[in-house]
Amino acid sequence: MKTEDILSDASRLVSGDRAKAYGDKKILHDKIAKMWSAYTDCNINAEQVAMMMAILKIARTTTGSSADSYTDGAAYIAIAGEIHDQK
User: Fold this and answer.
1) Which of 85, 77, 18 is nearest to 48 (CA)?
2) Structural domain of residue 39, as residue ranges?
3) Rounded Cα gap, residues 71 and 13, in angstroms
């Protein structure tokens, strides 16, 4: 798969199907951050959630993962960048 295809698919998913299914990215990542913070007793923010989800996708590539891991990883990095810019 070409770089352009991965990024195009990630963009389509983030602003299309997954946006419809999960709603606003920042609100969702804030909710996840609050839950992870409570569970770990550490302060985690929305940007860190997106980065950790990207790390999870990177880890999955070591097990012979599908192309979805690359697309999802790119999407999570982009979400982290968007959340960072909203600060």
Assistant:
1) 77
2) 3-85
3) 9
How many residues are listed for the chain in this entry? Answer: 87
Per 3-state DSSP, the chain is made up of helix, strand and coil in percentages (nearest 5) of 85, 0, 15
Angle (deg, nearest 10), helices 67-85 and 3-15 = 60
Number of structural domains the chain divides into:
1
Q: How many CB atoms lie within 10 A of CB 21?
A: 8
pLDDT category, 14, cuts 50, 70, 90?
Answer: confident
Predicted structure pTM score: 0.88
Tokens standing for 31? Answer: 């909710």
3-state secondary structure of 64: coil
